[in-house]
Amino acid sequence: AQKITQTQPGMFVQEKEAVTLDCTYDTSDPSYGLFWYKQPSSGEMIFLIYQGSYDQQNATEGRYSLNFQKARKSANLVISASQLGDSAMYFCAMREGQGGSEKLVFGKGTKLTVNP
Amino acid sequence: NAGVMQNPRHLVRRRGQEARLRCSPMKGHSHVYWYRQLPEEGLKFMVYLQKENIIDESGMPKERFSAEFPKEGPSILRIQQVVRGDSAAYFCASNSYSNQPQHFGDGTRLSIL
Question: CB distance from B101 to chain A under 8 Å?
């Protein structure tokens, strides 16, 4: 079974509108972390936002917020007031806290296109 | 504060040659991770190192691939006798504590002729 599922291969949004990118995860470990990264066409990986499994509040970073629903095992990324520069691939990733392994497991990504 | 530095940015090798990819972590970071990204895919974990130690190599192919992070100098991912299937983007990431977000370099795009 996939650990991280991103069901939207592609998403379109109008400039200045909000968009939600979906991410569901699968783990039996009570301690884990969830991350979102942005990969523009130039190829670099840019860290956006982090949510710990024990965090009481949803994470926010500027225009990015994470809609964390623990019971549903979902960690959707919300981008408010979309900008043309937000067009990129977006990857959800999870780090499980088992046995000292700190590797990130990534989803397949969602390609976001912001239209003017 | 310089970010994670990877070089070269692009590397072209012929089948059977060796590829060496370098990664200098962010200043103050002692944990290094290598990931591989095939076209149209997400990143796949390869190996996690701390200074002079391999902590987790569960994602490394059993043959031809090796990684090190010496006491002095950058981390090196080495691929011997490269084959066409090794063509990919290889990313290095680092952090200072294992529960901190991993910060990525710009990647090395490896092409095998």
Answer: yes
Q: Which residue has the tokens 């901190």?
A: B100
Beta bridge pairs of residue A20: A78
Interface contact B56-A106, CB threshold 8 A: no
> Is the pLDDT at B98 greater than 80, yes or no?
no
pLDDT at A97: 65
Residue B77 has pLDDT above 90, yes or no: yes
Closest CA to B84 of B9, B17, B6, B21: B17
Pairwise CA distance, residues A14 & A81, whole Å: 9
A43 vs B: CB within 8 A: yes
**Count of beta carbons in the 10 Å neighbourhood of residue B33:** 29
DSSP B58: T
CB pairs under 8 A between A and B: 64
